[in-house]
Write a structure and sequence with these properties.
It is a single chain. By secondary structure, the chain is of the alpha/beta class. Helix content is 46%, strand content 7%. The chain is built from 19 helices and five strands. It has a five-stranded parallel beta sheet, sandwiched between helices. Helix 6 packs across helix 11 and helix 13 packs across helix 14.
Length: 441
């Protein structure tokens, strides 16, 4: 019996037809390619809100992609469930030859892909994955001793040194669409309601970033009241609606500082790859011994933006309402929870994970541990942001604060829940004791 000429391309964190590495490899094969997307029930079940804005973004993006293929006489098949079960069902229907997709570096996707690969091998299906969401991955940037970097600056230097003419090379996947299977009748897209979520009227940030924003990025990036001070492209990089190769090439031409932010993203990805324990444990084990507080009332005040520190409160309210928070303010709010309130970074990391549109496990985890002083950072643990001086420096006219905390300056606004000096002294003592192997205070 002749081998099937049907193969799958499985879209995941690469939701675009343009410059898609794995898709290019699939469409260059001699097979007819069936493109699919799976709303992974194992991931969706972890989400707490029925109006999770990230699911809606995925649904809207998939709808747009599906329409593009329908216009070409093809279709994007969309499913909801456990990926392995869905792939098994598709194999029964099409007798698949190959499955193509792009790498994912987080712990659950790694296990999922290992299970799929084992099943594919037993079913005589070739399973191919490719690098697409980073410039350098896994162990491509190592020390001279062939070990992973655990400090950013030397990693960045090696990353930049390894760049060459191939680093930003685009893949012409959009020019190969004739290889997609032909659909006599497009499959109806599953609804948000059918996967357990509700639609909202939320408007997402666009994919365009102006050259002026990038050229002024070094000067403007720390001021949260500037609407165009940053790129707002985190969401699109998270789900691959933009090519990292094109964005890095754009950064190289216009902003060394913005390029540095993209390198930070890859630094934290390789940290997660080499040290998966960081997902729920401090990179530096000694700081697990800190006498972390667990005060539900204080934590709620922080979550709700009612700490009495206006920059912290503005940031938390912006996050709660929009799924976004300016990066400078993320550092201040994270420092406040871990240093002023002396609560374990994992609590804050999980809260951000539940709301951030651009949530990426590696970056969220890495930045929280950076703020807490428990991560891979050359700076000492006693870096503690003063939220009052941060406000004076980066929102001197209170434009950002007044937007998100309208009651600031009135009797309705709470007094600071803890004095900065008192909090700093308590934090330094707790961290110092932990380093000495003591947990009592």
């Amino acid at each position: 019996m002749a081998k099937s000429k049907h193969s799958l391309f499985w879209f995941r964190r690469d939701l675009r037809f343009e410059d898609n590495r794995g898709l290019t490899e699939a469409l260059k094969s001699n097979d007819t390619i069936i493109p699919i997307f799976i709303f992974d029930s194992m991931i969706l079940e972890r989400l707490k809100s029925p109006t999770d804005l990230r699911v809606q973004f995925l649904h809207q993006t998939i709808a747009e992609m599906k329409k593009k293929l329908n216009d070409l006489g093809s279709d994007l098949l969309v499913f909801h469930g456990k990926p392995l079960e869905i792939l098994e069902s598709l194999h029964k229907e099409y007798q698949l030859n190959q499955i193509f997709t792009n790498h994912d570096y987080e712990p659950y996707p790694q296990k999922r892909d290992a299970d799929v690969q084992a099943w594919a091998k037993s079913s005589q299906i070739e399973f191919h994955t490719f690098k697409d969401q980073v410039i350098f991955e896994k162990s491509e940037v190592l020390t001279d001793q062939k070990k992973p970097y655990t400090v950013y600056t030397p990693y960045k230097k090696k990353w930049l040194a390894q760049l060459n003419s191939e680093s930003f090379k685009s893949f012409e996947s959009e020019k190969l669409t004739s290889q997609f299977f032909k659909s006599a009748k497009p499959q109806k897209l599953i609804t948000m309601e059918s996967i357990g979520f509700k639609e909202t009227e939320f408007t997402y940030p666009g994919q365009d970033v102006s050259t002026s924003t990038l050229k002024n990025y070094a000067d403007d990036r720390n001021f949260p009241y500037l609407e165009k001070g940053t790129s707002h492209l985190g969401l699109h990089l998270r789900f691959g609606t933009l090519s990292i190769r094109k964005m890095a090439a754009l950064a190289q031409k216009n902003s060394d500082i913005w390029l540095s932010e993209l390198i930070w993203r890859e630094f934290f990805m390789q940290i997660l790859w080499h040290f998966p324990k960081v997902t729920n444990s401090s990179f530096r084990p000694a700081f697990e011994k800190v006498a972390w507080r667990d005060d539900k009332e204080d934590f709620k005040k922080w979550c709700d933006g009612k700490t009495g520190y206006p920059l912290v409160d503005a940031g938390m309210r912006e996050l709660n309402q929009t799924g976004y928070m300016h990066n400078r303010v993320r550092m201040v709010t994270a420092s406040f929870l871990t240093k002023h309130l002396l609560m374990h970074w994992f609590k804050g990391e999980r809260y951000f994970a539940s709301l951030l549109l651009d949530y990426e496990l590696s970056a969220n985890n890495g930045n929280w541990q950076w703020a807490a002083g428990t991560g891979c950072d050359a700076a000492p643990y006693f870096r503690i942001f003063n939220p009052e001086t941060q406000l004076e420096k980066f929102d001197p006219d209170l434009k950002y604060v007044k937007k998100w905390v309208p009651e600031f300056g009135t009797s309705a606004y709470p007094k600071p829940m803890i004095d900065h000096k008192e909090a700093r002294d308590r934090c330094l003592k707790a961290f110092d004791l932990a380093l000495k192997g003591k947990t009592d205070t």
